[in-house]
Amino acid sequence: MAASQKIFAGARIRRIRNEKGLSQTAMAEGLGISPSYLNLIERNQRPLTVQLLLKLASVYRINPEELQGENATSLAELKEVFADPLLAGEMPGMHELAETVEASPNAALALVKLYRAYREQAERLSDLSQMLASEGRATAVTAKRLPVDEVRGALERRPYHFPAIEDEAESFLKLLDVKEGLLPALKDWLLREQGISVRVLPAATMPNWRRRYDRHSQRLFISERLSPADQLREIAMETALIRMQVAIDRGVADLKLSTDEARRLARFEMARYAALALMMPYQAFLTQAGRAKHDVAVLASRFSVSFEQAATRLVTLARPGASAIPFFLVEIDHAGNRLRRIGAEGFPHDRFGGACPKLSHHACFAEPGRVLVEAAEMPDGGLFATIARTVDGPATAYHERPRRTAILLGCDLEHTDKLAYRPSLLVSKDVAALPIGPACRLCERTGCLSRAEPPLTRPIGLDEAVTGFSAYDFQ
């Protein structure tokens, strides 16, 4: 132990003393210190010295490592418990959490186990509710959610198309001179109409922000870590927040959110939507999407946008009388967390699910940048075309781990003839579609090598004489 390192382990010393049935006087005598000094140690007003650690090890046969530092794992787990929206406003300070772990480690672990059981039951109820809803039986199962979850849920349930924003974007574009491109047109408008200049700053100057508007100097700063397409989107977002406030507010109102924080988050979502509407004008993009047979990479090149931006814009093409294929999109990170689920008709939970581990966007991380195209078949026979690819985040320094997510763009397989990906989607008696399910808890496919959880609808198989290839056998 370094000379400068201080170890405060009062609660543990007190627990050891109580377990051995010793008074402070008796333990102090065994350690060769005064009872008052031991009292200060137990109240964490004095640290343990190297000599005391060695004395504790020899007299009471205690491993010194047990006294060095707090139980970081239990502390992190307890912090996760109190971060749940169910306990909003009850979050104790880190010092109080540390004291709880130190003084009552068994109680802290019991609380963590109880919380995990609660989360498990909540997930089971959610899956069961989804299953019943797909069968046409509505449920009243609800749960308190974070504002970000409320916004995501609202976007999943409705078509990802906001007419007021589309109309305002088209009107605004008519006022701009975009002959030299949208970027110089937006910069010129910001400077001429708002007195705002745009500057791209180096990463060292703005290490933590993509975009920052300084109201005092009337300057909009953009990070150099962003790709040209992402830099344009940030400038378009700031412009939309200034010029398209009424349309953005209408889009937020359409989501019918319950809290101010959720509505603020939704404003950012609407601003991103407005930026895409400016970067890829509706009618022009719809026309080019048909000509390119919805080839995302081709569309990204034609409009000088990213693959992700072009894929997202395809989902928005749901204007009555001028719509495209009803695409849907899901985005995940490398750990499988779902970040976005949107659809031209709402995300198709009941028909597609989107949580099957066999879907190609999970495989994308092994082949970054490659477009994976597959036909997928649901247990009820529903067929879907899926197009997946990884998406890279901002540029990183050599010591940083890059952010990489994966998107999956999908639609009913009946639209195959309108897709440039048709050769990879043909299904025949000799070429089968990939068998998938809505989610492991709701899927009854047997022998699935990718199964992560047993289904809710079947009892687990407990035959000791038979073991299947799936991680969970069921009857």
UniProtKB/TrEMBL annotation:
Residues 13-67 form the HTH cro/C1-type domain. The keyword Cytoplasm does not apply. GO terms for cellular component: cytosol. Belongs to the short-chain fatty acyl-CoA assimilation regulator (ScfR) family. The keyword DNA-binding applies. Pfam families: HTH_3 (PF01381), Peptidase_M78 (PF06114), ScfRs (PF09856). It comes from the Bacteria. Keywords: DNA-binding, Transcription, Transcription regulation. GO terms for molecular function: DNA binding; DNA-binding transcription factor activity. CDD domains: HTH_XRE. This is HTH cro/C1-type domain-containing protein.
